[in-house]
Each structure stands twice: as structure tokens, then as C-alpha cells.
Q: What sequence folds into this?
């Protein structure tokens, strides 16, 4: 029996912040450990000291290297230079798999992969939306243009990996049924993360951990926190942990409402450190794909209160009492009040640990992704009887 050969895999994405970066790091670690050669290409303009430390920890696993280039969020003339630089780097690495994540990364990976295939390469092109362009509304000029581009890029795609059923449904509704191979592959977390993280002695009542932009709802959290104080008629405490483009605006909002001594704004840190700051994690997003913070918090034994958006109900349970409508600070406040004051609230609302563990492990995610890659490799399609190991 012939063993399946190791693959040369490159992940291309824009911003090394948040869920996409976490997803790629997990795939890199798992696939490197399995003997594959992996590289990363991403933006050099985004991220700070925290992200730099993550890259330094990941670098020994990046046998195909780390390449950081200016890749801006908005579409513009700068994309031409970024695409050319990405093309030269990817061509030199001779990948078997080119996996684009998010709208910008997905476009770059598939366009560059297509150019390489015209030149004789047999690289297989994959795409994971991670929400991205799917957050746009369908009946808008921008939305229609973006979804038309997504449909066009499908012709340059061997396979699509959706991180949750919600994302897959959104794609079908807005772009159309995928014309090529696709898989639902849930995000997963490392084995070491399935362990309780007790709150410190000076822990606060509530915590928001994530990117500081309106899509993630820090302003909703601040509003709901203040309403919860009014409900309970006493001062409470909270932390907002993260970095992002709207940080200064949230800091101003906290000060303007007189909450500066009760809501502390802290920079991004390792999630295990952030979990020591509180036992109740609030995820008030206006839109999501399948956020890691929910998986990480449940695995760490935290109470989680979250918006009913994206794939979050797939993690917490569709009927979970911990879910609230998005952009509804009053309803969010009501559940925050209950979580803080109702004995046994966590045990009644959080998923059963063992079943959660089995469903959302990084090892399972990486194995399923590798199976998708191999199913679309040219030699696999030409010799379907050869076993995939």
C-alpha cells in the first residue's frame, strides 16, 4: 500500500487578528505535526505586539515560511502590487495546496492559483469564507457586486470549506449552491484548551474579549452593562480585552457614561490570561461566522452569553437560554442579570462537556480539512482507487 505523500500547503489571508488567524494557526500546528510543509502569507499592516508574539511562536512550524505584505481591507489600486508580490512568493514555494481565507485572501489565493495552473502548476485552490463577504446584504449594490465576484471565483476553486452550517446556508442564499466540492468543517480547539480556567480572586463580573469594532458589539456590551447595574441597583465590574479600529471610540463612550472605574479597557492578551479576569464571557456580536471565543470560553468552563448570530447556536445549542437577539442591549442585560444572580445558571445553560469536546477538537478539524485537500489533488482525482491515508 502506497503512503500518501506530504503536502506543501500555503494559507493566504488578510488580517492576522481574530478568528481567521486562530483558525490558520490551528491548521498549521496540526498539519505540521502530521509531516506536511506549511506556509503563511498575510497582511503586514495589521496587528501589534500580541500578534507578533503569536507569529514568533508559530514560525518554527512554518516550513514554507511566513510572508507579510501590505494587503489593505478596502479594494484599491494597491491590490495590484500586493497581488504581484504574493504571486512571486507563492510561485517560488511550489505549493500543492493554496488555501485562501476571508474575502481578500480567498480572491488572492484563487486568482494567483489560477495563473500558476495556466503556467503548468497542479496547485489545488481552496476557499473558506469565514463570514467575510457574506456579511453584506444581498439586495444592495455592493452586495450584488461582491456576490457576483464570489460566483465568478468559484470557477477557479477546487473546494470550499465552511466553518459552520450558518455560513454554508448564507453562501447558498446569497451566492448560490456551490458548483464544486464543499464541506462543512467546524472550527476546533486544541486538546490543552479543554480544561477549566478558574477566575482570579480579583475577577470582574463580566468580560468582553475580541476585536474592537462595531461588528463585534463592544458598544452593545457597554450599554447592556449599564442597564444591568440599573436592574440590580448596584455597581458592577467588567473588562473589555482586545484591540481594533474603534478602540478610542469605545474608550470615549466608557468615560462619557461615567463607567471609567468599573469597565477597564485592556489590550489583547492570550485568551487563557483573559479568562482569569472573569467567569462570565459576553459575545454581543451583530454578525459572526463561527467565533472561536465561544468555543474557547465553553471549553474553559466559563458561562457564555452570546448573540443568536452565525454559527453560535451550533456551539451553544439552538434553544440555549444563553442566546439573545443581536443589537438588543436590554435583552442582553436581562440575561446578564440572570447569569450573575441565578444559582446554577451555568449548569443549566452551557453544553455538556464531553459531547462538546468530541465535536469541536482541532484534531478533528485538521483531519477533515486534509481529507478535503486530498480529495481534490490532481493525482487523487486521476487515481480514485488509491487509498487516502
A:
Amino acid at each position: 500500500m502506497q503512503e500518501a505523500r506530504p503536502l506543501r500547503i500555503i494559507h493566504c489571508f488578510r488580517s492576522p487578528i481574530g478568528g481567521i488567524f486562530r483558525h490558520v494557526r490551528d491548521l498549521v500546528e496540526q498539519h505540521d505535526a502530521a509531516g506536511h510543509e506549511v506556509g503563511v502569507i498575510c497582511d503586514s499592516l495589521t496587528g501589534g505586539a500580541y500578534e507578533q508574539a503569536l507569529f514568533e511562536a508559530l514560525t518554527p512550524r512554518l516550513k514554507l515560511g511566513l510572508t507579510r505584505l501590505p494587503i489593505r481591507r478596502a479594494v484599491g489600486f494597491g491590490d495590484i502590487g500586493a497581488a504581484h508580490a504574493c504571486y512571486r512568493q507563492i510561485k517560488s514555494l511550489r505549493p500543492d495546496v493554496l488555501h485562501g481565507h476571508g474575502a481578500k485572501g480567498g480572491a488572492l489565493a484563487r486568482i494567483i492559483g489560477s495563473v500558476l495552473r495556466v503556467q503548468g502548476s497542479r496547485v489545488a485552490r481552496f476557499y473558506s469564507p469565514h463570514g467575510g463577504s457574506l456579511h453584506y446584504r444581498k439586495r444592495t449594490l455592493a452586495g450584488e457586486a461582491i456576490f457576483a465576484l464570489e460566483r465568478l471565483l468559484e470557477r477557479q476553486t477546487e473546494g470550499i470549506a465552511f466553518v459552520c452550517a450558518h455560513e454554508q446556508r448564507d453562501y447558498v442564499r446569497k451566492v448560490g449552491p456551490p458548483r464544486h466540492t464543499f464541506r462543512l468543517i467546524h472550527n476546533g480547539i486544541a486538546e490543552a484548551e479543554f480544561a477549566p480556567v478558574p477566575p482570579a480572586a480579583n475577577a470582574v463580573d463580566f468580560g468582553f474579549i475580541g476585536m474592537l469594532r462595531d461588528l463585534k458589539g463592544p458598544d452593545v456590551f457597554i450599554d447592556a452593562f449599564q442597564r444591568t447595574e440599573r436592574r440590580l441597583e448596584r455597581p458592577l465590574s467588567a473588562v473589555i480585552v482586545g484591540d481594533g479600529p474603534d478602540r478610542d471610540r469605545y474608550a470615549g463612550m466608557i468615560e462619557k457614561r461615567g463607567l471609567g472605574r468599573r469597565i477597564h479597557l485592556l489590550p489583547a492578551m492570550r485568551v487563557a490570561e483573559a479568562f482569569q479576569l472573569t467567569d462570565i464571557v459576553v459575545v454581543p456580536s451583530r454578525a459572526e461566522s463561527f467565533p472561536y471565543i465561544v468555543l474557547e470560553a465553553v471549553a474553559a468552563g466559563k458561562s457564555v452569553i452570546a448573540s443568536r448570530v452565525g454559527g453560535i447556536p451550533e456551539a451553544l445549542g439552538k434553544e440555549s437560554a444563553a442566546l439573545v437577539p443581536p443589537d438588543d442591549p436590554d435583552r442582553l442585560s436581562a440575561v446578564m442579570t440572570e447569569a450573575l444572580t441565578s444559582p446554577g445558571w451555568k449548569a443549566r445553560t452551557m453544553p455538556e462537556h464531553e459531547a462538546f469536546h468530541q465535536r469541536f477538537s482541532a484534531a478533528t478539524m485538521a483531519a477533515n480539512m486534509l481529507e478535503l485537500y486530498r480529495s481534490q489533488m490532481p493525482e487523487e482525482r486521476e487515481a480514485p482507487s488509491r487509498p487516502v491515508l
